[in-house]
Write a structure and sequence with these properties.
The complex is a heterodimer.
Chain A: E1 5-16, E2 19-30, E3 34-38, H1 45-53, E4 60-65, E5 68-69, H2 75-81, E6 83-86, H3 98-106, H4 114-127, H5 143-155, E7 161-165, H6 173-186, E8 191-195, H7 199-205, E9 208-213, E10 216-221, H8 223-228, H9 230-237
Parallel strand pairs in A: 3-8, 3-9, 6-7, 7-8
Antiparallel strand pairs in A: 1-2, 1-4, 4-5, 9-10
Helix pairs in contact in A: 3-4, 3-5, 4-5
Chain B: H1 2-25, H2 28-53, H3 61-77, H4 83-105, H5 110-130, H6 132-135, E1 141-142, E2 149-150, E3 153-154, H7 158-180, H8 183-193, H9 195-199, H10 205-231, E4 233-234, H11 242-254, H12 261-279, H13 283-297, H14 302-309
Antiparallel strand pairs in B: 1-4, 2-3
Helix pairs in contact in B: 1-7, 2-7, 2-10, 2-11, 2-12, 3-4, 3-5, 3-10, 3-11, 4-10, 7-10, 8-10, 11-12, 12-13
Classes of the chains: A alpha/beta, B mainly alpha.
The complex binds adenosine-5'-triphosphate and magnesium ion (MG).
Chain lengths: ~240, ~325
């Protein structure tokens, strides 16, 4: 039996006025994979994941999640189906505590009682090393720690697909290493789609890489294949 | 966490008990004012649920206040309902009106929402005047004392009036307290703080906002019904723009998104106008100046500042 694709797109396209940010992308993500999405600035990475989770409406093409067409399903329902999305530009509830930030992420998915919820919240905060700061306001965190809080808000949803948009931006080296370890642990239960500029993180965590350039898929392959690809080197790695 | 929980409930129970104690000691004049303030504070609490907790700035809550008041009043005088049933009828009407207005107005946000709610409320007020034969227009109508008996209790009696007002006030106070601490209330705060984020966590933002408007409008409608019934008069003034602006001011003054703020703000402003009108003709000017001072130096409102400085645990 062929591997089941958790996520699939067909000719997915997004135009902003005259600008085609995502251009006819057909893309398959098998369940259980850690996939890195890389490409130069402005390549359309954030726009593409925005189309996947419904934050941005597609101009043309389709998105399938677990075999169901979700192209016209609103974002909150896609999240309910098991997608989790973290923002590239940190988007948290600054005036609320870390605990409440994560609890808000957990509640729509949570069936158990308040005690279970608390446990899940502290579990997710623990995963990113913020469990001791649960009662602090999110706005009091450093930028890097706010990124970690975003990740905790994704993890606590126990998603089938976890989409992370440049999660390691602003993290210290130690934290990046912890992040790599976290991704490996999470990959046992979730499929992960990771937009990342830090090539160390990509090489360390990704099973498979998709390279986007000018809104189109430039290359796909294992980390070794992509590293060896001449086109990719020209477009991206060489420049970086 | 449990101790904090108890502290919150005890505080609000204490507030209700203090108001109950005041019933036995206040001179008639202040007794009368406080009864009125409690009913108007229900309107303010309803307003605060949408404005304070959900961040929906409406300029049309007079429509809900008026809808509840007229449904109750016309229910008694026109349909011959008993007062208790008339209030239930008013609540049902308020649910319907707020569901309809909410589902239309929430297609907009921010300034457009202010304008749209204002326009709906103006249209409602105009309808009351237009159907003057039924509503008695600007003049309004009195609900005769004979029809203000609930289970033998005469609502025209000032003692009964105070106690009924207190019961309704307490019901709404504890209901809103319970609601804002529920996962529903917390989702509303999340939507207020960062709507895009809330959506991307799986919250159906439109449905939550609509729920907030229905709760808010229904409480405001209950306030209108109670006001008409307890004070025996139903009139178009209560559906005019003044009754959209007043709850906004009360809530700002007392503290938006605090449970006690609406009551404190209503009480404060009522006395502000009452006291300054004793000394000067220009009492509205005095009230205005104090309002400006408060917004300059106590931007969170009275209870909001207390919460910020001394008691961050206040809901
Ligand atoms: N809402 C928008 N309106 C107009 N243009 C947009 C919008 N969002 C993105 N774009 C444009 O679409 C292109 C792709 O942007 P996108 O943010 O998807 O790139 P990216 O690959 O995520 O870049 P980065 O690595 O800098 O995050 C860019 O040229 C960008 O300016
Ligand atoms: Mg991006």
């Amino acid at each position: 039996m062929a591997a089941v694709n958790l996520l699939e797109t067909k000719n997915l396209t997004k135009q902003f006025g005259g600008l085609t940010a995502v251009n006819g992308v057909s893309f398959e993500l098998p369940a259980g994979q850690v996939r890195a999405l890389i490409g130069p600035n402005g390549a359309g990475k954030s726009t593409l994941v925005g189309l996947l989770c419904g934050r941005i409406e597609a101009t043309a093409g389709d998105v399938f999640f677990e075999g169901h067409k979700v192209t016209h399903i609103p974002a909150h329902k896609r999240i309910g189906m098991g997608m989790a999305y973290t923002f590239q530009i940190t988007s948290i509830f600054g005036k609320l505590s870390l605990h409440e930030n994560v609890a808000l992420a957990a509640r729509p998915h949570h069936k158990g009682g308040a005690g279970d919820l608390d446990q899940a919240v502290f579990g997710a905060l623990g995963d990113v090393g913020l469990q001791d700061r649960a009662e602090e306001l999110a706005s009091d965190l450093s930028y890097g720690h706010q990124r970690l809080l975003e990740i905790a808000m994704g993890i606590v949803q126990k998603p089938k697909l976890l989409i992370l948009d440049e999660p390691t931006q602003g993290l210290a080296d130690v934290e990046v290493e912890q992040f790599n370890a976290l991704i490996k642990r999470l990959s046992e239960t979730s499929t992960i789609l990771l937009i990342e500029h830090n090539m160390n993180v990509v090489m360390e965590t990704a099973d498979f890489i998709t390279v986007l350039n000018f809104g189109e898929v430039l290359a796909e392959g294992t980390p070794q294949e992509v590293r060896a690809n001449k086109l990719v080197q020209d477009a991206y790695l060489g420049a970086g | 966490m449990r101790a904090g929980e108890n502290r919150v409930w005890l505080l609000h129970i204490a507030v209700v008990l203090v108001i109950l104690a005041l019933h036995f000691v206040l001179p008639p004049y202040h007794h009368g004012i406080l009864a009125r303030v409690m009913v108007l504070a229900i309107l303010a609490m309803g307003y605060n649920f949408a404005f304070g907790y959900t961040g929906l700035l409406s300029l049309g809550h007079a429509l809900f206040f008026g809808a509840g008041m007229y449904a109750m009043g016309l229910g008694i005088t026109g349909l011959g309902l008993s007062p208790g049933i008339a209030v239930l009828f008013a609540i049902v009407c308020s649910v319907l009106v707020s569901a309809i207005i909410g589902s239309l107005a929430l297609r907009t946000a921010g300034v457009s929402l202010m304008i749209v709610t204002l326009m709906f409320a103006q249209a409602g007020w105009y309808l009351i005047l237009y159907f003057g034969e039924i509503t008695r227009g600007d003049e309004g109508f009195v609900i005769p004392q004979a029809q203000r008996l609930v289970a033998g209790i005469d609502l025209a009696d000032s003692n009964n009036r105070y106690l009924i007002a207190l019961i309704l006030f307490a019901i709404v106070l504890f209901t809103t307290l319970k609601l804002v601490r529920s996962s529903f209330g917390k989702a509303l705060v999340a939507i207020r703080e960062n709507e895009e984020r809330a959506k991307m966590l799986g919250y159906n933002v439109f449905a939550y906002k609509l729920g907030a408007i229905i709760v808010s409008g229904t409480i405001s409608g209950l306030a209108g019904a109670a006001y008409g019934l307890l004070f025996g008069y139903v009139g178009a003034t209560f559906a005019s723009v003044q009754y959209s602006i007043l709850p906004l001011l009360w809530v700002l003054l007392g503290g938006a998104s605090t449970i006690l703020g609406p009551f404190v703000g209503t009480l404060f402003m009522t006395y502000l106008i009452d006291i300054s009108s004793e000394f000067t003709e220009a009492y509205l000017l005095v009230a205005g100046v104090i309002l400006v001072l408060l917004t300059l130096f106590a931007r969170q409102g009275i209870v909001g500042e207390v919460k910020k400085r001394f008691a961050p645990w206040l809901p």
